[in-house]
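[Q] Does anyone have a clean structure-token version of this?
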Amino acid sequence: MQTKGCESVAKIKQDLNFNENLLGEDLKFKTTWGLFSPRAIDEGTQLMLSHIDKSCNIGDSETILDIGCGYGPLGLALGKRAFNGRVHLVDRDYIAVEYAQRNAEINSLNNCRAYLSNGLSEVPKDIMFDTVVSNIPAKVGREMLTILLCDTYAQLKPGGQMVVVTINGLRAFIKNNFKHVFGNYKKLKQGKSYTVARAIKE
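[A] Here you go.
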């Protein structure tokens, strides 16, 4: 006997689909409930992309890493920009990785690959990146944030950059730790709820 209130669960289980223009490119996204911001690109990602485009000089041949990629909006938008490069999208959630890879295929982004990794734990150590980006979850924990920054520094090319968007409550932590690990920090934009910041491996 079907439980009352569950008659429409089959519809809820269906994939969500939407289109979005990111960095001047039209992208298609397929998502599902349980992933972060499944119905639209979240405010933090939108803020980051609008300012990474203005301030961070992403080249068309870059090697890029998107940490905590979710269903892939950051990494795939940058994959469109770095069409002669390579984008690695990693997440510790296998559902997120599945949808990020599916979205790469839907958008014919053969230069993008999504795979499971807790931070950079499964990223091949011989790959050096030009740009590392992350929409850092609010509840990731300060210990994990420290690991992410140190591991990223180790796999950035000289002159490479790490660009992150965080809730404003983590702004001071990111500023202090960018300065500690990278020796520099630049706030690209502070919005009502989020801050976009960058550090460069000098």
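[Q] Thanks! Anything notable?
[A] The helical segments are 9-12, 43-55, 73-81, 94-106, 142-154, 171-181.
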